[in-house]
């Protein structure tokens, strides 16, 4: 019976119906030690951007973005020349898709509305790079 269950589990993983345990519940490598935010909790969006192109994430720290989507930016990672921003996207017209939070390359978006200056430097911690 155990071998039969193992085969079903493998089949579900291969079909994408069951996530791999290796991607869930682990700390991922840090992308930066510091981030720039509007406040010490990074709870207020600093700008709104529009996606210039589709972006497909490389791991669970990142969010998928579709060309033309609005992106709310909450933090800019400080190291490595500000290559990555943290934010959220939502589908068109209130919830075609639920909001997702994560990182994305700053090069795939363009700023459309500045909201609050990102003047507060905040240390990143393990939860910034934790995959569920």
From TrEMBL:
This is SH3 domain-containing protein. GO terms for biological process: extracellular matrix organization. Keywords: SH3 domain, Signal. Residues 44-114 form the SH3 domain. Coiled coil: none annotated. Residues 1-24 form the signal peptide. The keyword Signal applies. The keyword Signal applies. Pfam families: SH3_2. PANTHER family: MELANOMA-DERIVED GROWTH REGULATORY PROTEIN. SMART domains: SH3. It comes from the Eukaryota. PROSITE patterns: SH3.
């Amino acid at each position: 019976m155990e071998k039969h269950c193992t085969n079903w589990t493998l089949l579900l993983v291969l079909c994408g119906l069951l996530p791999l345990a290796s991607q869930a519940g682990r700390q991922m490598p840090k992308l930066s030690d510091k981030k720039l935010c509007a406040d010490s909790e990074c709870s207020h969006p600093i700008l709104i951007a529009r996606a210039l192109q589709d972006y497909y994430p490389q791991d669970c720290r990142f969010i998928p973005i579709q060309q033309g989507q609005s992106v709310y930016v909450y933090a800019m990672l400080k190291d490595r020349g500000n290559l990555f921003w943290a934010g959220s996207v939502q589908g068109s017209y209130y919830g075609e898709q639920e909001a997702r939070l994560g990182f994305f390359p700053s090069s795939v978006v363009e700023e459309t509305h500045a909201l609050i200056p990102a003047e507060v430097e905040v240390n990143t911690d393990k939860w910034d790079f934790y995959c569920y």
